[in-house]
């Protein structure tokens, strides 16, 4: 029955997750840090801002500036409030202490917000007391977010999977293979690590250029431990979509490879994810990787500096 | 052997999780935000209240009111206690400060609860000291719950998966298909995303109206990345439960579709869940989705406003 | 080859996790809350105490007593220290305040530990300052554990899966089945819920009484949603280990069923686990469950009080 | 087709995760605590230091020293700052209190950092106020990291899976088997526990000594509950890589076994991981394990001291 046949064939298409996106552009979908070159319009304000995500992923410098800025702005705001209500409601303010009235109010605010509360200056009168009471409450709440963010940033597991600078086409058994070498830069263990490679290129179908995506079969796509290095190998058999490709054909079709690695950090049982993209000009033909391990008496020595070291090799 | 046959057949029934619920009502089981229209009687007090769940999921406005209310009530309670024990046990209370005795006690309580402790007012005498000591202790503990909740709410991952307003019946290959389009409104990545569609309708069996549930086969039910949009496709083959359905028959049988999406947010490795229901009047025949991507030089542009854009299409 | 045969057969044994435990006792392995009746000797001190586990799982009353006790003991300890060093090193101590020297030291300690620090009493001299400085530091650290525990206890997901009081043997299709009914007492959703039933009984093999464990096949062992009730059904086919069992034979062999339920709470994406054991006297023959749902106009009403309601039914 | 054959054969190689590491050294890859004997050169500073990982996994003694050291250093730094700015900007400093100016500044710093803020000493003047304000802010932030670490360490689930001291070769059915016995030392439950055994030895291939890795098939590799003890059994069939091995041949080839156990702690739904390595001299031939359970009236008694108890047994 023809109908079912077509449906079955469609189902067997490579399951890359890009397959349903028809596009005629040749822009790189993934940059080589593994981020997607996608911009969105029509996002809601909340989705666009995505405050928590931004605060966790921004640089430490930016986070420090924002934290201090927040502290400053809150203290300025409350300082102005106390000042406007009347400095006479802050007992202990005294020109002899070398501070102007406003700055006494400002520093009183900071002592309240952080709950230090030295008490040299203290609130009297209803309004000032109410505001100080609210400020201490807000201080505790806002510091809970700030400190939560700080610890979240500090404890966030950052996978440090390093990839060889180039993907190479090397001799493999009696054929050739696409190889990419990985190493875990950190000293902690990664376990149950799984890798996948997606290959994409422009193809001209009925005169229309379309971007096509293919999953590449790996000789080994999962390892129980990732203690040393790991060389991903896609054997270029006659069935492989890479069969017959040359450096020139890869360039002509804007070829790109997307490597994804998933695993578990066994210190904290956190899942980790890592991505890396190789553009056609990051693929080399006729190379093979040199060993990274340096034999030692009592232990194994992995030299990360050799991760991308290759030598020429005659292809089959 | 007939017995085993029946058992085997029962086992092969669609595994929707509703299959064992016999019901004669035609109420919608799922509202279109994906919440179940189920009320329960006989819950224990603890299960009905489910305090933590409520505090995490209520609106920010409600949470703010409850937090401030809690702060107010605790301070009132302790303020009254200090007042009843005798204001003479609070050293530093002074009518010149423009506060009545009770409010001095109230603000002393707030300074103790937040651990600001300016010290202008401080406790003397056994009873007041004991109570102040307990209040500071309880303050630290209760603020730990309040701040934990606040940060929990702030950091809770809210999936922002948007669904097309309508499910459509569109031409698909040489047959037709049910299609629903999804997009991730946020800028962060979702990975390992899995979708399922459950179809339910009333069926008259032996003269009794029963609600029946069917899982719909999808052309693709899992994608590795959810970077762009994703159109779920259920091919309406002759085997499909939707084969032969019309707008009228769907309405007559109170038909409803439940879409569920599960995946992982790769910034925090948090699992995310999303649900959406489409009632018969949210299903359109003879449409097809228009592209959402706008080709650009250097990147991909996804226009979320076009998520529900369709045009007419002749069905096969 | 006979050797391989025996090995293969052994591999196909029911995988219950108890299978390798040879035992001649007839004690119940699991109590009906799902806890194992296992005691261990030879545990290390740390494993036996398992402080964190105890502090999270103990009752709220016990936790409150321990917290307050800890607060009291620490303040007593530091109070005694300050007193022994010399009350003259606490400035502001004054007999007029109605407190003896020791209690001034005690309350100073509590003001330091909670970081309230009113400052009416403050440390002078080296030793007292050093100790106060250490106490404030320890106070912050120990309160971090206390508040962490408190929030951990508060936010710990407690599955409230209710089980029917009895497991029943009911007519099922053209044979009979073992049935156990479950309901989620809470209002939040459980998804991807999986259940299993393990049956155990004493068997006399070569004159030795051994406890044997069998996994029971379920008509359905996984549901996508657990919105309503769920009746676990083990069809008693001729292959079933329950085939031919009677109330008397179950009692004679000290039969026991262990139900385990695993799933995900979709508010927080937390996994949940629940267990329940049914002893032979909690199994009834010739019953069937009555409906729990009460049809309503606009929603589904699940009456948890009817979870265990059965009526007599003639067995096949 | 020969090419595909070789590729297929390579794919069927044992998936141990070490298979791709060619090495000629005979160093033990895993020590018997399950840590890998791997050192890395070329790590980035951040990867090498891996601060969070170190702070969570170091001993409690070391953590205490580092915490106190941090507290001391920060107070010294700020104390010196306040002293250099001029002690006259700290109101309330008074030689009568038995502290030199510097130590007054030091203890003022500690009162600010912990937010105790007694207020006997309080800042006046702009510079001192600014610094005190920053110190209180930094204090709150740094204590958030310290207390987060402390609670993280305290609540970190430490699996206490104990392994028998030796792996034994025991009679098993009508052949022999490699057996290793495990027990959960803690009183909490482990569920869904999975085990694997990897065997490695030196093999001389074409005159080159290579380390080879093999996964060993287990009679049972997963149990639903780990309530009692669990004896891992690898049946030494004719297909087994251990078939024909003797104590001498294991020693000659530097043989080593790596046991890994994964599961879920059901109190907190935390995944747990455990590893243990057995070197050739920790493997005994012709033994069998003695029972660990002591029959009791009402419960099961597991004697952990008997975990490694064996008696001689004639091998098949």
From TrEMBL, chains A, B, C, D:
Membrane topology label: Multi-pass membrane protein
Protein origin, superkingdom: Bacteria
Location in the cell: Membrane
Coiled coil location: none
Record-level Gene Ontology MF annotations: inward rectifier potassium channel activity
Alphabetical GO biological process terms: potassium ion import across plasma membrane; regulation of monoatomic ion transmembrane transport
This protein's UniProt keywords: Ion channel, Ion transport, Membrane, Potassium, Potassium transport, Transmembrane, Transmembrane helix, Transport, Voltage-gated channel
Principal localisation: membrane
Gene3D superfamilies hit by this protein: 1.10.287.70, G protein-activated inward rectifier potassium channel 1
Residues covered by the Potassium channel domain: 71-150
Transmembrane region(s): 63-85, 130-152
The Inward rectifier potassium channel C-terminal domain, residue ranges: 161-312
Entry GO terms, CC: monoatomic ion channel complex; plasma membrane
Pfam family, one: IRK_C
Protein name: Potassium transporter
Organism (species): Lacihabitans soyangensis
């Amino acid at each position: 029955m023809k109908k079912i046949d077509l449906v079955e064939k469609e189902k067997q298409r490579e399951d890359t997750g890009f397959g349903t996106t028809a596009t005629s552009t040749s822009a790189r979908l993934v940059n080589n840090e593994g981020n997607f070159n996608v911009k969105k319009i029509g996002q809601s304000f909340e989705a666009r801002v995505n405050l928590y995500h931004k605060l966790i992923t921004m640089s430490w410098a930016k986070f420090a500036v924002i934290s201090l800025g927040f502290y400053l702005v809150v203290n300025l705001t409350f300082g102005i409030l106390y000042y406007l209500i009347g400095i006479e409601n802050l007992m202990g303010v005294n020109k002899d202490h070398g501070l102007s009235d406003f700055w006494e109010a400002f520093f009183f605010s900071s002592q309240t917000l952080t709950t230090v509360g030295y008490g040299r200056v203290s609130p009297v009168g209803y309004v000032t007391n109410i505001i100080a009471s609210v400020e201490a409450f807000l201080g505790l709440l806002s510091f809970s977010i700030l400190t939560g963010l700080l610890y979240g940033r500090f404890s966030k597991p950052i996978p440090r999977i390093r990839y060889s600078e180039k993907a190479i086409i090397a001799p493999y058994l009696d054929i050739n293979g696409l190889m990419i070498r990985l190493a875990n830069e950190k000293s902690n263990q990664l376990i149950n690590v799984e890798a996948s490679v997606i290959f994409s290129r422009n193809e001209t179908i009925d005169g229309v250029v379309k971007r096509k995506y293919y999953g590449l079969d790996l000789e080994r796509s999962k390892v129980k431990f990732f203690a040393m290095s790991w060389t991903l190998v896609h054997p270029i058999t006659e069935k492989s979509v890479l069969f017959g490709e040359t450096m020139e054909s890869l360039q002509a079709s804007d070829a790109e490879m997307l490597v994804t690695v998933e695993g578990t950090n066994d210190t904290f049982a956190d899942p980790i994810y890592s991505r890396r993209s190789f553009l056609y000009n990051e693929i080399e033909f006729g190379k093979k990787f040199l060993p990274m391990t340096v034999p030692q008496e009592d232990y194994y020595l992995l030299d990360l500096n050799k991760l991308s070291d290759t030598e020429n090799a005659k292809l089959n």
